[in-house]
Amino acid sequence: MTPVTATTVRLVERFPQLTGEEMLSSLVPPPQFDHATFDTYRVDDSYPSQGEAKDALAQFAVGAQPIAARGLFSFGRKKQRIDAPVKPGVYLDGGFGVGKTHLLAAIYHAVPAQRKLFGSFIEYTALVGALGYKNTVDLLRGTALVCVDEFELDDPGDTMVMTRLLGELVSTGTRLAATSNTPPNALGEGRFAAQDFLREIQGMADSFRTIRIDGVDFRQRSLDSGASVEDEGDFDAALATSAGGGTASDDDFRELIAHLAHVHPSRYIRLIDQIRAVGLREVTLLTDQSEALRFVAFVDRVYDAQLPIRATGTPLNEVFSEEMLRGGYRKKYLRAISRLVASTHA
User: Fold this and answer.
1) In terms of Cα–Cα distance, which of 250, 269, 265 is closest to 332?
2) Where is the signal peptide, in residue numbers (predicted)?
């Protein structure tokens, strides 16, 4: 049998540029959610809040009044009809891997409007950075729906900019849908995530209805082991096979981490343009917080593009130090680990 070969490129040699107009045109759901619907959302019957969230969001998508409410601490209580006016925004509060992005994309596809946007928090803040605040408001005004995936609460400046931007859009009729992450089975962090969100967005809080989604990470349901690691001698063949004969990236891990500091995170998606598999050689532990957070942003783009990762060295689920996993960015690192494990098994 003829061995599979692949063209390889080095991401560290790429310096992508992205205009404001290109940023705007890219504000659509990631490819794996091109056809996401409420019907294709995989409900885990062990967690009733998933089915309830799906039903409530389906109603929101078509502008209808939800038939039932479930407060943040109302688990087990009898559902009652809501007679209050429908709020212009919904916030999906829950752990990673419970399908929030799928549901967000389902809202996007179900809303009967021509002008709607779907992007990560960092993509919207990058748009403001590229076009300026006023130009961004003028450009987005009249948009029927704005979906914000992974709303970040750890940067006060960016949070304030986004809150102000969304407030101006809501005042002219735009509806909003947002997600954020809380780690599963962490009662302290998980149960109060919604309050954190509402507090940080201050004057916008009354515009959102929070919907809790419980569950376990679907990526881990069938992946009990850690990230897959390739032997040095098998790496080239594994990478070529994963790329299916197409183009694969092949970089030293430390060199790539250094390179990410010179590319704005909003452009990471262009780093992997036309790539079908990502290769990382000699992975090592990350101890610098800035480097780790840039790697998290890179992992998000790789995962959104559904690219397999092949790596040597330290298992990628062990790449973040124990100190980081105990710190304020714990949620981001746990999400990245979940995605890294899935990508190395893809």
Assistant:
1) 265
2) none
Is 201 a residue whose pLDDT tops 80?
Answer: no
Report whether 253 contacts 295 (CB < 8 A).
no
Integer angstrom CA distances of residue 121 from 26, 30, 71, 131: 13, 14, 25, 16
Domains and CATH numbers, the chain: 7-17+220-345 (3.40.50), 45-215 (3.40.50.300)
Give the Cα separation of 29 and 118 in Å (integer).
Answer: 6
Residue found by looking up tokens 């610098």 in the block: 288
pLDDT > 50? residue 161: yes
Maximum Cα–Cα distance across the chain = 67
Q: What is the tens place of the pLDDT at every residue in 286-315?
A: 999 999 999 999 999 999 899 999 999 999
- Both tokens of 338, joined, read 């979940």
Contact indicator for 96, 332 with CB cutoff of 8 Å: no
Q: Measured in Å, how far apart are the chain's first and last C-alpha atoms?
A: 23
Q: Residue with structure tokens 């995989």?
A: 42
How far, CA to CA in Å, does 289 sit from each of 161, 209, 266, 319? Answer: 23, 33, 19, 12
Nearest Cα residue to 91 out of 219, 206, 216? 206
Instruction: Quote the tokens at residue 198.
Output: 């509402």
User: Residue 189's pLDDT is what?
Assistant: 44
Percentages of the chain per state (helix, strand, coil), in multiples of 5: 45, 15, 40
pLDDT of amino acid 218:
65
What per-residue confidence (pLDDT) applies to 335? 83
Radius of gyration of the chain (CA): 20
Tell me the residue type at 53.
Answer: A
CB-based contacts of 99: which residues, under 8 Å, 6+ apart? 41, 42, 50, 213, 215, 218
